[in-house]
């Protein structure tokens, strides 16, 4: 029996992170409703600290530690939003964060993590090297490892976004989120199942990285094999914890073409005047491609993040 | 004696447009504060209808008309945000809008105005042709001409942005806005002088289109002569109405380099995750260039708009 998170864990996470995380705004946009043929409310995690929902989970994990644990610091391997989120959460608690990153990671990502006060530990650009280096760091420092998604504290933290959304907006027919490792999806699904069981949870996944879709069909985790998608936050595979929650509480996963992801991203920028990253636009891509008949429905979309290299936009 | 707008006119405008215009959010951003060395609150007119503050003035003008006047429609010449704003306001009132635009205007701008239901009237791309064509339209239809800024109804409408900001945020040391024709600046200045006389009003203007700066120095309107600035909303010159208010109530105009405008725009996109147009970034450019010592001050910046061609970004 896996230690699944519960609604109580999400409430506890919400209380724990409330002094640090933004309660992000919920926006509506007439022009997007017209385009999508549905009534959509947008939960703007691109405005979250570090520019992504990832701060919620990292913050909950870091502030869940006992003082004795915390003193020895935290560690993770990531070159993306989770790394920045762990670094900032650790700085806020006043403890060290060891971030293991491939030595060929883009300079801009190294700088972001360093800017939040993380201690960089470089390794060769392979999964084996990453895991081995992280294990060495943990052994040497006694730091607590914080997995990007397969961690009950992280899942509960990510669930606080949906908790805020469902508290603020009633009568949603559907909640849509992107799925990569499944932290946001599983947190969203367990909150929704508990608080709004009539609301469907539908995940959107790049067709080019459809491991969650295939895993749900197969009933077992099928990892992503070197997927190539512009949605760089969604290249990871599910973990046992996230998969168990997704199997139980997620109604559907739809896959989305790269073209629709890019089109969705551009529509959000042009019509809503906000900056979102490709991963955040995957649910919009699904709506644009009409993979589901959601005409006239009330849909909550969690916009997962806004970190994008403005010098390399995909249009 | 010119018919200057008053605070009462702005209050009346606020009531008149409240059913149609957004009360835009006021954002803060720790990372921008750190960058600029000041405590800045951002009034987000990029989220306004049609993506710019211009909707406030156009909406107030359109809904100020008597039913008899309104029936004959409205007319303006513009290819920018004012044209879209007049078209949408007219559609909301259910009356015709005649928009005179040079026949070589970009297709995207023609499409935007047409999308809001405006009737396009094309003319040769000269000021003389534009004014003559507009006069012909007014004569033929009986439409009311709505000037983009030199109009007391428009000025009062633009002033509602500052009215909302000052109602929501206390103790600002400074309000900064960009200046082109001066509609936003004069509306802001007259509201601030009446409601928060201790708050300085400082305008920011592209150095490459510094007619307002020179006009204020000279004490007379000196027009912009074919200015070339990326801030396409600020290429116009002051009018007698806006100039009179600016002379009376604006403390200072600072000029800003093109490089600083672009840098400011990029910082806003990257750190605040919102899309603003170059004109909106001019006050940020002024802060970046430290043209004034505002260290530690509380500054309200009105972000004037967010309409930008994503296919042609300046970095």
Core attributes:
homodimer, six-stranded mixed beta sheet, 2 domains, four-stranded parallel beta sheet, 13 helices, Rossmann fold, 10 strands, alpha/beta, 315 residues, globular
Describe the model.
The structure is a homodimer of 315-residue chains. Chain A has two domains: 209 residues, Rossmann fold, CATH 3.40.50.1100; 91 residues, Rossmann fold, CATH 3.40.50.1100. The first copy, chain A, is of the alpha/beta class. The model of chain A has no long low-confidence stretch (mean pLDDT 95). The radius of gyration of chain A is 18 Å and the shape is globular. The N and C termini of chain A lie far apart (47 Å). In chain A, helix 1 packs across helix 3, helix 3 crosses helix 8 and helix 8 packs across helix 9. In chain A, strand 7, helix 9 and strand 8 form a beta-alpha-beta unit. The first copy, chain A, is built from 13 helices and ten strands. Chain A has a six-stranded mixed β-sheet with strand order 1-2-10-7-8-9, sandwiched between helices. A four-stranded parallel β-sheet of chain A has the order 5-4-3-6, with helices on both faces. At the A-B interface, helix 12 of A face helix 12 of B.
């Amino acid at each position: 029996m896996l230690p699944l998170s519960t609604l109580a864990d999400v409430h506890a996470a919400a209380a724990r992170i409330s002094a640090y995380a933004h309660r992000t705004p919920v926006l509506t946009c007439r022009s997007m409703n017209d385009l999508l043929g549905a009534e959509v409310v947008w939960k703007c995690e691109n405005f979250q600290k570090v520019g992504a929902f990832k701060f919620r989970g990292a913050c909950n994990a870091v502030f869940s530690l006992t003082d004795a644990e915390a003193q020895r610091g935290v560690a993770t391997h990531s070159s993306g939003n989770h790394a920045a989120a762990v670094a900032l959460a650790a700085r806020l608690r006043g403890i060290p964060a060891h971030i293991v990153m491939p030595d060929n990671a883009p300079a801009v990502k190294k700088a972001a993590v360093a800017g939040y006060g993380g201690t960089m530990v470089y390794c060769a650009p392979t999964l084996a090297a990453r895991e081995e280096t992280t294990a060495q760091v943990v052994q040497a420092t006694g730091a607590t490892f914080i997995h990007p998604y397969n961690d009950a504290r992280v899942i509960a933290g990510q669930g606080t976004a949906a908790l805020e959304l469902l508290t603020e907006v009633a009568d949603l027919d559907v909640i849509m989120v992107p799925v990569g490792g499944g932290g946001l999806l599983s947190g969203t699904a367990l909150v929704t199942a508990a608080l709004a069981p009539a609301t469907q949870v539908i995940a959107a996944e790049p067709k080019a990285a459809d491991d969650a879709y295939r895993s749900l069909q197969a009933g077992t985790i099928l990892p992503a094999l070197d997927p190539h998608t512009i949605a760089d936050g969604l290249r990871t595979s599910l973990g046992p914890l996230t998969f168990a929650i997704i199997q139980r509480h997620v109604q559907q996963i739809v896959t989305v073409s790269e073209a629709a992801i890019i089109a969705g991203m551009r529509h959000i920028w042009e019509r809503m005047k906000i900056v979102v990253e490709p991963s955040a636009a995957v649910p919009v891509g699904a709506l644009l491609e009409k993979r589901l008949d959601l005409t006239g429905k009330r849909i909550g979309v969690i916009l997962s993040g806004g970190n994008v290299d403005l010098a390399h936009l995909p249009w």
